[in-house]
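Worked example

This section walks through a single chain of length 240. The input is the sequence exactly as stored; nothing has been trimmed or padded.
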Amino acid sequence: MKISRTDRIMVLGSCFATNVGQRLLDYGYDVCINPFGTIFNPESIARSVTRLRSAEPFNASDCIEMGAGAGKICSFWHHTSFARPTAEEFISNANARLAEAAENWRRCNKVIVTFGTAQVWRRNGWTVSNCLKRPGYEFTHEMLSLDEVEECIRTICTDGKEFLFTVSPVRHLGEGAHVNTISKSLLQLAIHRTGVDYFPSYEIVLDELRDYRFFNEDGVHPSPEAIDIVFKRFLSESQV
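Given that input, the structure is written out below as tokens.
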């Protein structure tokens, strides 16, 4: 994918997508970044794209009280950064952002999608974007199949836009390194099999840099320096 200052860009996905999107914004590009907040799994990202197409407003049935004594209201569509003290405040903010983002989706011609994990959490059979600190027993947890990830990619890639996919270099180690490897491999293989454009942010950080000085103190998230390196590589390969 080649980008120019005249392009209108939507960035969706993990926290890595947010970081890259913010740098594009800082460089003066026309960018809409994660209108539902940070989302990690392909199924939730695909569902978010469907919501952007329909622009169907959120209502009281979407409101969920967060757990762990947070005292805030959010929804299973959103990152917790959207949480507000009351349902009315949440709905007002969520719908204002949705209306703006739906218009951005309608007019954008380039979309950058970053998958973080193939693992999903489901509540009553519905894949959530965020568990909102609710008790673990409310959810089931599983790995998407290769076919399911491919179907998500096909759902996302419509409307005559150009799409670029990448896999976040941030490792999800809650269930161990082996499960993370399987998850990232599923994402990589699905992207490869569907033939969509791909940018190797995962490989740049984990194969080329390969040094913990390029990571934050948690040893998992890339440092600002690493993100800058990836972003500059992206610009060098994508600018017209």
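What to look for: The longest helix spans residues 87-107.
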